[in-house]
Design goal:
heterotetramer, A: alpha/beta, Rossmann fold, two-stranded antiparallel ribbon, 12 helices, 7 strands, globular, B: alpha/beta, five-stranded mixed sheet, binds thiamine diphosphate, binds magnesium ion, EC 1.2.4.1 (chains A, C), PDH_E1_Alpha_Subunit (chains A, C), pyruvate (chains A, C), Pyruvate dehydrogenase E1 component alpha subunit (chains A, C), DH_E1 (chains A, C)
Chain lengths: ~325, ~350, ~325, ~350
C-alpha cells in the first residue's frame, strides 16, 4: 500500500521491523501484567501492584523515538514503560518475586522497577515524584551536550501535584530536552479528573509554561507515536519541552485493593472494546505490514517469553538477610 | 493484651482499630458541623485502608472531601480552615506523603499560635497511616514519629489499640492545637473492646500494659503487641517484664517511664522507626538524665528499625524492624546481665 | 464632575470618605515603612524587613472591597496589606520593636505581622506559604456559609511554588470564595520573572485553573480596585476564585541586605516617577474629591500617626524571658 | 579554639567560613565540568548569605544556576541531574525551606541507591544555612540536623570552622551518596586558617577541639565555640573540660565520643536544635548502651533548644538556644556532682 497522507504516521515513519517489535512489546506488557496478577493471586508476589492493561499503546509508542541513551522516568503504574524501554520480563518477574536476579535485587519491587542500563530511571512510589527527576536528567543532557532526550511519564492525578508545576516551569525556563507524557486514564485512584482537575484537557496546562501541549487518543498507537516523535524531535533540536496527553484507560482497578466503586461496568466495557493492541494489530494488517498469522506468531512468542520469565524468576535467589543494609551507601558501613 | 481497668457500667463492643477510628470520626461529624474530613480517596473509595469507609454516604461529599493529589496544598487548606473556624481531620494516604507537606505542618500549623503571640489557634488533626509490613517498599513504609516529635507546637500520638485509637482521636479533635496521629497499618484489622459513646484518652499519658519487676520495655504502636508477646514467653522463664505503651511521643510521659525504671532498673526501648535518632533515643536520654539514672542496673538498650530504607523482599522487610523474637532475645540478655 | 464612563472606577464606585481613607492608608504605609527603615538603621529593630514602598496602591485598593469579616493572607512583604486591612501602626511598630504590645506580642516581628481581629491572618516567612491557607479560609466561609471572601496576596516569585498550583487548583475545583492577588514587582529577590517564570503575564496561568485572570497596572489605584472588586463580587456570588495580577515595583531592595545588582538605577527611577500615591492624589483632585490642601492634611496626619506609633512602641514592654515557651500550646505545659 | 595539628608544609590563609565554602565550590567548578551549583539567587545576587559570591562571574549562569522559587522542583531536578552524571551542589536559601523538599531529599535522593539494589547513585550535596540568632524568627531559624540524621541513605554534616567548611564540602562532593551540609549562619563571618588546595576532611569523624580530664562536652556547629568559651572559664576554676566537635551527625563517630567519656565519666551534649529528639538524644542513648555506660559517674546532661519555635524578640531569641553561660553553669554543676 502506498504510504500516502492517509497512511497513519507510524506506518509512514517506521519500518516494518520496528512496528513488529512495537506489537511484540505491547503483547509483552499485556501478558507480563496478566502473569504478575496471576502470581499475586497465587501468593507468589506480595505487596501491591498497579496494572496498566489497556494502556499499552501509550507506553510503547511513547518510547519508540528513544534510544538506549535517552532516559525515561516512570510511575507506580510503570511496568509498561519498563518494557517499552527495553527491559527483560524475566528480570522484572525476578524483582516482583523479591529475588537477587531482579532489576533491583529484590529491594524495590513493582513500585521501583528500573533498568538504568536501558535509560529507565525507575518507577516511583510517589505520585509526581519522577517529574522533577526527569527534568534533572534533561539538565544533564543539556549541560554535558549528550543529545539525549528524557520522557517523563505521569498520570492525570499527578498533574495536580506541586512537583508538576515546578518541574514544568523549570524545564521551560531552561529550555530542557524533556517530553512530558501525561497518561490520562480519567482517574487518580478513585477521583475523576472532573472532581480533581480544574481544566478539561490536561494539555491545556502547557500554556502556563509556554510549551506546546497536545491531547491525543492514547489507545491509537500511531497518534501517540506522532505526537511524541514530534515532541522528541523538537527537544533534540534544542527547542525545549512539550506536553503530550494520552487519553487512555486502565481496565483493572487502581491497585490490588480497588473495589471499583467510582466507575461503572459499562464504562469499563466501553474501553475494553477499544483495546489498543487489537487496534494496532488491525492497523498493521490493513497497511500490509503484518498479516494475522505473523501477528499470532508475535503474540505466541510474547506469551512464551512471559512464561519463561516466570520460570526464571521462580528459580531466582533469595537475598541474604544479613544484606538488609547493603546498598544503603556506596560502600557498606557498619 | 491485658484489658485496662474498666468501668463495668460502660458498654463496650469488639471493633477493629479501623472501625474505632471511623466511629470516632462519625461521632465528631454528627456532633459538630465544624468538623470536616479531608484527604485523597476518603469518599466513595472509603480511604486507601478503608478507614473512612461509608462516612461519605452518611455525611456527604462536602463534609468528607476528596482532595486532588496535592498533599502540600491540601494540608495548607486544612491549616487555613482550622485557623478560621473549622475542625478538619486531614488524612494522608500514607504518612510517607507527609514529606510533601512538612512546610505546612511544621512551619505553619505548629508555629502559628506562637508566631502570632497566642492570637491564633490551629485545631487540626493529621491522620497518618504508618509503618512497614505490607510489602509496599521504601516509599510507603516509613515511620516519622521522631520527626514530628521534634517539633514544638505539635502533639504526636501513636495509638496501639482500638480503644485508644478512638479515644486519642477524640482527644486530638478536642485539642486546640495541631495533633499528628500515627496509625500503624498492620493494626487496622486488630480487634478489641471499644467503649460506646464519646470518651477521650488523655494525651501525654503512657499506659502500663503489663506489670513486671525485672525489666521495663517501652514500646509504641505495633511494637507494644510484639513486646507483650515477648513478655509472655519470658514469663515462662521467670523473667517478669513490664510493658509500657508510649502512646504519646510529644509530650512524652516522663513520670510513668521513670517510675517503672526506678522499679526495674532495666530499660529497653522498642520502636519501628529508624534506630538512630528515633524515639528510643529520646526515652533513653530522658532516663539517663533523670533521677532514675541512679537506679539503672544495666545499659539502656534500643531496638529500632535498621539503618536502611524498608526493602521490598518480604524476608528482608521483616528483618528491617524489630520482631517479637528480637525483643525476647534482647530482654533475656539484659535481664541476665549479659549486656 | 459628572461620574461618567471616563471617570475612573474608584471615583464612580466609592464615596469620598472611602477614597480619602484609602489615601490616608497609602500614606500610612509609606510613612510606616520609612519609619521602620529608619528605626532599623538606628539599630532599634533587628532582623530584616521587606519594604513595599512603591506598591501602596495594590495593597490598599485590593482591600477596599473587604469588610472586617473578610480575610486576607499576606506575605513577607506584608506591611502594606496589614495597614490596608485596618491595623494600627502603633501596635505594628511595637511588634517590630519586639514588645508585648505588638500584634504578636513581640514573637513574630515583621515577617509574621498579623491582626486576626481585622481578618488579617498574617504575613508569612515562607514564599507561597499563605496561598493554601487562604484557600482554607475560603473553605471555612463556604462550609459555614459566612459569606466572607478571602484575598490571598502573593508575589511573582511565589507563583512558581508548587503551593500556588495546588491551592489554585483546589480553589477552582471546589469553587471557593477567594481572590488571588499577585503583586508582580518584576523580581523574586534578584530573579526577574523572565528568568524564572515561563509565561509573560502571570495572570495567563489562571487559564490552567479555568478561572478568570486579569493583569492591571498595579500603580493605578482605580484599575486595581476595579479588578479586585469584580473578583470579590464574583466570589461573593458563589462563582468561585479569580486571579488578579497587579504590575508594580518595589523602590527599595528586596530586604535589608540587597545590593541591587540585578537592576539598574534607571529602571528604579522610572518607577519612582510612577508613584502610586501621587497618582491617586492627582486623580482625586482631578475628579474633585479632594483638593491639595485636603490631601496635605491627610498626609500630615499620617505622618503624625506614624510618629506617635513609634513613640508608643518605644514605650512598650519587653517580654519576660521566662515566657519563652508561652504560646506554644493553648495552655502552657512544662 | 585550639588549632588542629597542622603539617607546616601546607600553606594556609585566614578566610571566613563563607569564603572557605566559596573557595571549595570554585575549585570544584574549575576541576570538574560535571559540578554545577543550583539555588535561589546564587548568581548575580551572590546568595542570600553571599556564599556563592562572584562564582557566577567566573563560571557563568549555566554552571551557577539561579532556580525559580521552587524548592521541591529544584531539589528534584538536582536529584535527576545527579542520577544521570552531574554533581550538583544545591543551596537552600534557608534550611527551613527544605521542608518543601523533604519528598525529594528523603524519598528519592536518600533511597534511590537502595531501592534500585545498588544500580544507581545520587552524588548530590545539599547546602543548608541553619540556626537562629539573626532575628528572622520562627520560619527562618530552625535546626533540622536531627531530622536528616534519622534518614538512612543520607550523610549529614555540621562544620564549625572555616577549615572544616571547606574540607567537608569537598569530601561531600567526592562522596558517591547524597550529603546534607548544615552551615550555621552565625559562622559565615568567622575567620580561621584554611589550607590551600584540594583537601578533604573525613566524613564521620569527630574532632577533639580541647582535651580535658573532668568532663566531656559534645557540641556541634556554633555550639562548639560556645562550649570552648565555657571550657576556658571553667579551666580557671580547675575544671578541665574536653570539647568534642561532632562534625558529622550521620554517621556519628561513636569511637571518639566513647573514648572521651570512658576517660572523663561525665557527658554533656550541647546542640541548637530542639532539645527533645535532637542530636543530643542520640549521643546520650549511644553512650547509655555502650561500654562507656559503666564508666559514667553522673547522669548525662543535654542542653538543646527550648521547646518552642524561635521567637523574634532578640532577648527571647537568645534564651531559646544554649549560650556559653548556660553551658558553663551546666558543666560546673555536673563536674561538682550537683546533678
Ligand atoms: C504523593 C502521593 N500521593 C498519593 C499517593 C497514592 N496514590 C498512588 S497512585 C495514586 C493515583 C495516581 O493517579 P494518576 O496520577 O492519575 O495515575 P494512575 O494511577 O491513574 O495511573 C495515588 C493517589 C502516592 N503514591 N503518592
Ligand atoms: C519557600 C521560600 N523560599 C525562598 C524564600 C526566600 N525569599 C524570601 S522573599 C523571596 C522573593 C519572593 O519573591 P516574590 O514572591 O516575587 O515577592 P516579592 O519579594 O517580590 O514581594 C525569596 C526568594 C522564602 N522566604 N521562602
Ligand atoms: Mg490516572
Ligand atoms: Mg516579586
Amino acid at each position: 500500500m502506498a504510504k500516502d497522507d492517509n497512511t497513519p504516521f507510524a506506518i509512514r515513519r517506521y519500518d516494518a521491523e520496528t512496528l513488529r517489535e512495537a506489537l511484540r512489546k505491547m503483547y509483552l506488557i499485556r501478558f507480563f501484567e496478566e502473569g504478575a496478577e496471576d502470581s499475586y493471586t497465587r501468593g507468589l508476589i506480595h505487596g501491591t501492584m498497579h496494572l496498566s492493561i489497556g494502556q499499552e499503546a501509550s507506553a510503547v509508542a511513547s518510547c519508540l523515538p528513544l534510544t538506549d541513551d535517552d532516559k525515561i522516568t516512570s510511575t507506580h503504574r510503570g511496568h509498561g514503560h519498563c518494557i517499552g524501554k527495553g527491559a527483560e520480563v524475566g528480570r522484572m518477574f525476578a524483582e516482583f518475586f523479591g529475588k537477587e536476579e531482579g532489576y533491583c535485587h529484590g529491594r524495590g519491587g513493582s513500585m521501583h522497577i528500573a533498568d538504568v542500563t536501558k535509560g529507565n530511571l525507575g518507577a516511583n512510589g510517589i505520585v509526581g515524584g519522577g517529574i522533577p527527576i526527569a527534568v534533572g536528567a534533561a539538565l544533564t543532557a543539556k549541560q554535558l551536550g549528550t543529545g539525549a532526550v528524557t520522557i517523563c511519564f505521569f498520570g492525570d492525578g499527578a498533574n495536580n501535584e506541586g512537583a508538576f508545576h515546578e518541574a514544568l516551569n523549570i524545564a521551560a525556563v531552561w529550555k530542557l530536552p524533556v517530553v512530558f507524557v501525561c497518561e490520562n486514564n480519567k482517574y487518580g485512584m478513585s477521583t475523576s479528573t472532573e472532581r480533581s482537575t480544574a481544566v478539561k484537557d490536561i494539555a491545556q496546562r502547557a500554556a502556563a509554561y509556554s510549551m506546546p501541549g497536545v491531547t491525543v487518543d492514547g489507545n491509537d498507537f500511531s497518534a501517540v507515536a506522532e505526537a511524541v516523535q514530534e515532541a522528541v524531535d523538537r527537544a533534540r533540536r534544542g527547542e525545549g519541552p512539550s506536553l503530550v496527553e494520552n487519553l487512555t484507560y486502565r481496565w483493572r482497578g487502581h491497585s490490588k485493593s480497588d473495589r471499583n466503586r467510582y466507575r461503572t461496568k459499562d464504562e469499563i466495557d466501553s474501553w475494553i472494546a477499544r483495546d489498543p493492541i487489537l487496534r494496532f494489530r488491525e492497523e498493521l494488517a490493513a497497511h500490509g505490514v503484518l498479516d494475522a498469522s505473523g501477528a499470532d506468531a508475535i503474540e505466541a512468542a510474547a506469551r512464551r517469553e512471559v512464561e519463561d520469565g516466570i520460570a526464571f524468576a521462580k528459580g531466582g535467589t533469595d537475598p541474604t538477610i544479613a544484606d538488609v543494609t547493603k546498598y544503603v551507601y556506596a560502600e557498606a558501613r557498619s | 493484651m491485658n484489658a485496662p481497668t474498666r468501668n463495668p457500667e460502660i458498654q463496650t463492643r469488639e471493633l477493629s482499630y479501623a472501625e474505632a477510628i471511623r466511629e470516632a470520626m462519625g461521632m465528631a461529624l454528627a456532633r459538630d458541623e465544624r468538623v470536616i474530613l479531608m484527604g485523597e480517596d476518603i469518599g466513595v473509595y472509603g480511604g486507601a485502608f478503608q478507614v473512612t469507609g461509608d462516612l461519605v454516604e452518611r455525611f456527604g461529599p462536602d463534609r468528607v472531601r476528596d482532595t486532588p493529589i496535592s498533599e502540600l496544598g491540601g494540608a495548607g487548606v486544612a491549616v487555613g480552615a482550622a485557623l478560621t473556624g473549622l475542625r478538619p481531620i486531614f488524612e494522608f494516604q500514607f504518612s510517607d506523603f507527609a514529606t510533601l507537606a512538612m512546610e505546612q505542618i511544621v512551619n505553619q500549623a505548629a508555629k502559628m499560635r506562637y508566631m502570632l503571640g497566642g492570637e491564633a489557634s490551629v485545631p487540626l488533626v493529621f491522620r497518618m497511616p504508618a509503618g512497614s509490613g505490607t510489602g509496599a517498599a521504601a516509599q510507603h513504609s516509613q515511620s516519622f514519629e521522631a520527626w514530628f516529635g521534634h517539633v514544638p507546637g505539635l502533639k504526636v500520638l501513636q495509638p496501639s489499640t482500638p480503644e485508644d485509637a478512638k479515644g486519642l482521636l477524640l482527644a486530638a479533635l478536642e485539642d486546640p492545637d495541631p495533633v499528628v496521629v500515627f496509625e500503624h497499618k498492620l493494626l487496622y484489622k486488630l480487634k478489641g473492646h471499644v467503649p460506646d459513646g464519646w470518651y477521650t484518652t488523655p494525651i501525654g499519658k503512657a499506659a502500663v500494659r503489663r506489670e513486671g519487676r525485672d525489666l521495663t520495655i517501652v514500646a509504641s504502636a505495633i511494637m507494644v503487641h510484639r513486646a507483650l508477646a515477648a513478655a509472655e514467653k519470658l514469663a515462662e522463664e521467670g523473667i517478669d517484664v513490664e510493658v509500657i505503651d508510649l502512646r504519646s511521643v510529644r509530650p512524652i510521659d516522663h513520670e510513668t517511664i521513670i517510675a517503672s525504671v526506678r522499679k526495674t532498673g532495666r530499660l529497653i526501648c522498642v520502636y519501628e522507626g529508624v534506630r538512630t535518632l528515633g524515639i528510643g533515643a529520646e526515652i533513653s536520654a530522658m532516663i539517663a538524665e533523670s533521677e532514675a539514672f541512679d537506679y539503672l542496673d544495666a545499659p539502656i538498650l534500643r531496638l529500632g528499625g535498621v539503618e536502611a530504607p524498608i526493602p521490598y523482599n518480604p524476608e528482608l522487610e521483616k528483618a528491617a524492624v524489630p520482631q517479637a523474637p528480637d525483643i525476647e532475645a534482647a530482654a533475656r540478655k539484659l535481664a541476665r546481665k549479659e549486656v
